[in-house]
Amino acid sequence: MSPTRVLVLNSGSSSVKYQLLDMRDSSRLAVGLVERIGEQTSRLKHTPAGGESREREGAIADHDAALKAVAEELAKDGLGLDSPELAAIGHRVVHGGKTFTEPTVIDDTVLAEIERLIPVAPLHNPANLTGIRTAQVLRPDLPQVAVFDTAFHTTMPESAARYAIDVKTADEHRVRRYGFHGTSHAYVSRATAELLGKDPSETNVIVLHLGNGASASAVRGGRCVDTSMGLTPLEGLVMGTRCGDMDPAVIFHLMRVGGMSADEIDTLLNKKSGLIGLCGDNDMREIRRRVDEGDEQAELAFDIYIHRLKKYIGAYYAVLGRVDAVAFTAGVGENAAPVRAAALAGLAELGLAVDGERNAVRGDEARLISPEGARVAVAVVPTDEELEIATQTYALVIGSGNHT
Which of 199, 344, 347, 362 is such that its CA lies 20 to 30 A from the CA of 33? Predict the structure, then answer.
């Protein structure tokens, strides 16, 4: 019998998130997080299915040590990396450029291309590469698969993907709109169609992935035709610490008049803007608490957030022409009822409305929050990027016969 387990790794600059799944029923055998890698205060939290969480604290020097620690924790539960049940390791890779349009078995050529894309993903691709290389050392015989955040968005037409700048310059420096959160948008658009009892190929969905990072996508018949993030994850919606859409001349102004360097502006726009720049908080729960207490700065930040979100909903409605559903997902999208209500307020003429009672209900399952008989369904669909990565990894490895 073929092995059925997939280990999913999401390697950040100082963290590794992981899940071990059994693809026979998509069940989670273990989940965990290693954080603050490279610090004296490193921490590993590991939770086996049906068991108590375990924590380890103390210095974890690098990703090699982190993955070895993960392997030790898995082994304690009889789920070690040496298990013959392990079919593959699936890696989240943020940027695949135009090259990678689907999950890909990793070899030296793939590694070289991921490395070549570092200039357009300097915060993410290096960490992803480190996780891959470390996993290859631990299990050199096992297929390693890269699942790219950008892949789902490679179906965008050139009219949506290209910026209106000189073509030669754009091509030479790979400047175009790539989009991100692709595994989430793929999973949620498909799950939304299933919730409606429709085939994804016949369903048009606006997906709103609203977390600390936030993005919107227009999905026609299961294929992305537009998305809000661009060359990097900075473009688009107002986010926790990122500004989203902005006149690019602001950068020149800050250089010339403010005397700021490129690095200073990069830090400003990526880490000190968005909600935290507007009101000092990037946690939507705290912002809503402040709004309820009459805090005008928090209220303005919330209004700016909603204004941008509503503009994208309207724009993608126009792009799609016919919309079957709007789906909210990720931390804010799944849990912040006031955000969902405000984003669709006043859009009844488009067939978009939220039922107050349904919207107030919290839950872990996909559900409709639009009124009965609404022309356009409004859904809350919890995202599952790890399951999507595992599903794509397993399908590729088993389908190709490329497994141990």
Answer: 362
Q: Which among 190, 203, 277 has a CA at the least distance from the CA of 240?
A: 277
Q: Percent helix, strand, coil in the chain (nearest 5)?
A: 40, 20, 40
DSSP annotation of 371 reads P
Q: Which two tokens stand for residue 151?
A: 């892949």
One-letter amino acid for residue 338 of the chain:
P
Residues above pLDDT 90, as percent of the chain: 79
CA–CA distances in Å: residue 305 to residues 114, 278, 302, 309, 329: 33, 10, 5, 6, 16
What residue spans of 14-77 are helical by DSSP H?
63-76
* All residues at 6 or more sequence positions from 157 whose CB lies less than 8 Å from its CB, including other chains: 225
Burial of 25-55, coded b for 16+ CB within 10 Å and e otherwise, reads eeebbbbbbbbebeeeebbbebbbeeeeeee
- Residue 193 is classified by DSSP as H
User: Measured between alpha carbons, how far is 148 from 188 in angstroms, rounded to an integer?
Assistant: 16
Q: Report pLDDT digits (tens) over 125-160.
A: 888 898 899 899 888 999 999 999 999 999 999 999
236-275 per-position pLDDT tens digit: 999 999 999 999 999 999 999 999 999 999 999 999 999 9
Mean predicted lDDT score pLDDT of the chain: 93
On whether the CB atoms of residues 37 and 14 are closer than 8 A, the answer is yes
Residues 291-295: what's their mean pLDDT? 96
Name the DSSP class of 201: G
Task: Give dist(CA 8, CA 19) in Å, integer.
Answer: 5
Q: Which of 108, 149, 303, 324 is catalytic?
A: 149
Q: Is 303 a catalytic residue?
A: no
* Side-chain half-sphere exposure of 98, counting CA atoms within 13 A: 11
pTM of this prediction? 0.91
The answer to whether the beta carbons of residues 16 and 70 sit under 8 Å apart is: yes
Of 192, 182, 247, 240, the C-alpha closest to 216 is: 182
Query: Rounded distance, CA 186 to CA 193, Å?
Result: 11
Q: How confident is the model at residue 315 (pLDDT cuts 50, 70, 90)?
A: very high
Q: Which residues pair with 220 in a beta bridge?
A: 204, 223
354-380 pLDDT per residue, tens: 999 999 999 889 999 999 999 999 999
Joined together, the tokens standing for residue 35 give: 């954080």
Cα gap 218→132, rounded to integer Å = 31
